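#struct-help
A.M.: can someone run this one for me? Single chain, 164 residues.
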Amino acid sequence: MADGKAQLIDPRDAGRRSVALRRPVFDEETLARADSVLHALADSLCEWLDGDIEKLQQARLGAEAAGWADTALEQLMAAAHDLKGMGATYGYPIVTQIAASLCRSIETQAGKAQARQDPTLVCAHVDALRAAVRDRIKDVNHPVGRTLLRTLEQRVEGLGVAPR
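D.P.: on it. Structure tokens below:
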């Protein structure tokens, strides 16, 4: 970039490069500091999770109002995807799993068409996520959480709209 222009590198031409990382990448002191930061943020994490659940609920209401149009379903999927990515970080691995099931159900055109025809499974996912957070069901070791997750995943699988 000596001349101020970006240089594009095609990885197919450059070949594979490996990064040599020393093991362990993070020492025990670093992990302990990170753990203490997460504990200090615990109250904030609950607030953020509640906010993400509210965002999901608003996306659901918006999708209902829009007749489950693709753009509204994509907004719902974006909210679910955020929960899928953050659920375990928030201390709710079941939120990650239920949100992943919701994403699978509406990520394809066939899934979106199914949601338009019968949105009850999408609504059931949103309601399950709201209930899990409200009732502090954090993982599949909780009998209600395990049953909710298993039932939702089976229904999504049964539709045949989600890629494997």
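A.M.: thanks! Residues 42-65 form the longest helix (24 residues).
D.P.: also worth noting: The mean pLDDT is 89.
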